[in-house]
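Example 3.2
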Amino acid sequence: MSVTRPLHLAAEIGGPPRYDAGSHVTLARLAERGALDFVTLSDSFARPGPDALAVLARVAPATTRIGLVPTVTTTHTEPFHVSSAVATLDWVSKGRAGWQADVSTTEAEARLFGRRTAAPATALWQEAGDVADAGARLWDSWEDDAEIRDVATGRFIDRDKLHYIDFEGSTFSVRGPAIVPRPPQGRPVTVIDGTSGPAREPAARYADVVYVRATSPEQAAALREDLRRGAAAHGRDPDSLRVLVALTVDLGDAETAPEPGLESGPQLAGRGTYFRGGPVDLAELITQWHRAGAVDGFHLTPITPERDLERIVNGTVALLQHRSLFRTFYPGGTLREHLGLGRPANRHTLARTTSEGTS
């Protein structure tokens, strides 16, 4: 089967907790040399170390093109603060920000805050969907031309282009508007790991990028199609969704013929499928699955970041580029452009334009 859609690649740059962002800068620059769509930095309230969003704000001025996607836990956090922080990262990076929504399910993490007890995953993912919805509305609460900056009249903002969102979710309400102007991308890219059942519905409804885990191209294709149907059921264009297979990779082995599927490696607790082999082996797997039309790309988590990311970029990616399956340069400047996603129209501008057109 011939596939014409582009291949998308992303990589995790986390690992053992570190308190100096220097290593993350080095890894992000390495990934950028390989023209990867974006890098991610995992985080949770159970993990020691600096906040992932703050670390990638440090990485932003040290890079120029690669997308930056921190994990942001929506449980126990204020949606208004989440949207402000992600919008700020988009401004700092000049349009390269995304965020991976995640939830906190344990009682130990709940005790860190002391405001409520742990809740079932279904309820937490419903709340995470509400946060994604409220965030998008807050980013739209400033129209693109709301800032006037007229020194002569002393007017900074056109108040008619600043909007209350008056959002009511299952566990919170937000009036708005945002305190940060509309981000360069309009709405930073939203990423959700759709592997678990409770996460699947908000992923189909709100995410731009969804991770899935599969041990065969057929399984991956079925998961992708299910998410696309879900997106369409929510009134979205399925082609606005990018589905990436999440794969933990160990490239420490010598080149060997991979065993059938991905069952050759152990399952890492809660983190899905594991691939063990060499850079060429990994390139073969990516080539086969993408040519089969199974997925839009891969999110790779190196088991040893400093070693494996170098082998991904200089081995796997270089081979995919040689086969003309992956780009050799960034054709655009924003993460949305890397992913082939358009800049969303502001809902308030669109509503006014539509109203004027029908009056």
